[in-house]
């Protein structure tokens, strides 16, 4: 149901992808990748204004799959993308926001690790645990 | 060749593993209690002997029959059947196989050729070592529930060094079974000095042969100490005294100030020398840098170093930081020997003595889950702590509101850091004690949260005096907006901590509290807040408002309020700190202005006073002389 992805500029390749029902993972990969374009579009649109931390992005409703894609961009242009099943109507906006916030916090914690090179794939167990717990919460 | 720690003979090994698999169908790690009981009964030993065996082999402690325990038990059964007392030492000797009457395949296998038994090379020290290893196993197992299941340890210890390894691997089997094979080789490889260092490196208390090759020499020398400290270092995640000293020395080599921290890059270079793979080092860092600030304080460094040591000795890294490696715990323990300042003397309120670490582990365990919060607080708390001291000493006359903030500042500290405030309170219980400042170790520059510098604090005092009458209760000194988050956050911490940080309750009710309540609260809370108490009483003493209240201060104070409710979360701390810094700077500017204004007023008042006095002189009757 839920997929968390982090992309990093400028190449925009995923640093981390996790989905709860692990089937259809490829589909999620594809979705995330396509959503990146929309995310970039939004970023450039708000370029002049202060970069808002919270970029709630709802709109990629595929007619068939029927799920929602949320985006979030940090100040360093690292993008977090979350794909949620539309059937999961219990998810409210602020929940999404809080999830993104947690993601962001965990991401900064990873950054603090001197052994982590920015641009590497994220292997941190703490991060995995956080993401898993978050996704379990949703599903 | 004997495969197991006890250097079982081949037949023994075979037998034991057979029995074990019978009792414990793989892939379980532990033998089922009932089948084990059956087997034991089949040995036809008296029940109390069997009880004894269960105890000695460690299964009782651990709660289950892992392969280690099972094998020891079998060996003990053999010993008992041969007439030896049920003790660890007896199984070191050559023993026939245990005989289990009721079991079919057991009956014919009475293998009694001592010649086949290797492992006679056991040394007496093993007795204690094994005991320790048992204990360690128990504790290690308890401490690390996630450790991989122990499978029968089959790799033959090919060299004497493995004998020394045996207690460790026996006790800690965690990944031993899997790693035993590869450890046979890497073990020698890792330890440049083999035989004599093998034991030392194998022993838990010994330091691993890190890239610092000098370690090996000291390790072998310290091996003897291991026994003495073994009772204390029962589990692999507890740092022994000599280990701690070693870590501290290493810390010093990287960072002379023991109360400061090592930056990430420095630590990275240092730990890279240990030649552990980068992902493992990354994980170690993740575990030990609890406040995720990219720097290692002394306790964090000790924890990280210890994890490296453990890893080099073959232990799997835990998923979460063991309690004995928590910074709070380590600080309590490590600061004992380091009496740089009286701060750490009375670290544990309940444990003034040497048992502090143990008790602390208990108290810390209760707050183990607060580690993330603590970690977040730790970093700031450490500095805040010291700052609080400085501030407290400087702000002697600070009104109670400010005291609240300083209280909060102290409260911000993690549970572990409570030690510092606590020690402060112990060292200077008198409210007017201004020596706290001297007690502090060289601390980093005062955190902004502490807000006032001494000079401004004095003015604050006057300021608050002026305003005390009207708005006293509603005042919040400009200082640390970040302060309230901590205390309020810490409020959510376990109740066991409440006593230690009673001030936590204060932040929310800060505005409402009246001075007397505050004072009582402060006085009733021994830990840390000596500064607070001091400030409170001072503030209370300054009940004489003579200066005209300055609106600026009042207005600035409420402005700080909004920040108070911010919940301290490790994630928000950084932001809170920055806002706190900003606010404090603004507050400082405001207070400086206020200061100059008040100085002016003071001058004018003095002039008036002089004028009046001269008038009085003139008007006095001439007769009075």
Automatic annotation (TrEMBL), chain A:
It comes from Corythaixoides concolor. It comes from the Eukaryota. It is found in: Cytoplasm, Perinuclear region; Endoplasmic reticulum; Golgi apparatus. This is Trafficking protein particle complex subunit 2-like protein. One of its GO terms (cellular component) is Golgi apparatus. Keywords: Cytoplasm, Endoplasmic reticulum, ER-Golgi transport, Golgi apparatus, Transport. InterPro entries: Longin-like_dom_sf, Sedlin, TRAPPC2L. The keyword NADP does not apply. One of its GO terms (biological process) is endoplasmic reticulum to Golgi vesicle-mediated transport. Its main location: cytoplasm. The keyword Cell wall biogenesis/degradation does not apply. Pfam families: Sedlin_N (PF04628). Belongs to the TRAPP small subunits family. Sedlin subfamily.
TrEMBL record, chain B:
Pfam families: EH. Residues 12-96, 243-328 form the EH domain. Residues 276-311 form the EF-hand domain. Keywords: Calcium, Coiled coil, Metal-binding. GO terms for biological process: endocytosis; endosomal transport. GO terms for molecular function: calcium ion binding. GO terms for cellular component: cytoplasm; plasma membrane. Signal peptide: none annotated. Residues 128-160, 174-207, 347-385, 412-456, 471-553 are annotated as: Disordered. Residues 128-145, 359-368 have a biased composition (Basic and acidic residues). Residues 577-615 form a coiled coil. The keyword Coiled coil applies. Residues 146-159, 476-487 have a biased composition (Pro residues). Residues 347-358 have a biased composition (Polar residues). PANTHER family: EH DOMAIN, RALBP1-ASSOCIATED EPS DOMAIN-CONTAINING PROTEIN 2. This is REPS2 protein. It comes from Corythaixoides concolor.
